[in-house]
Amino acid sequence: xxxxxxxxxxxxxxxxxxxxxxxxxxxxxxxxxxxxxxxxxxxxxxxxxxxxxxxxxxxxxxxxxxxxxxxxxxxxxxxxxxxxxxxxxxxxxxxxxxxxxxxxxxxxxxxxxxxx
Length: 116
Prior knowledge:
By secondary structure, the chain is mostly helical.
């Protein structure tokens, strides 16, 4: 019984031999053209990788900028919430103070009326 990976192993083992056989049948000019094409492909691939690296660096900088904006936005949201909370507390305190002042004024007026 053959192993399930036997076909892949033999393909890997004999692939190099098949490539050598194909290269033996090529003329010298065809080999030179193949070498030039491979060199151009390598150069194009290197250029593409370089552009990809530049794009990744640019995206990393943008990510850091966006993260900084996000963090500042969160801090501003917390500051706004705190300010709204303090404003609400101050309004409630002012209402309470006004109500107490009116109550005291009424009591003093009643006391003044009683003394008269």
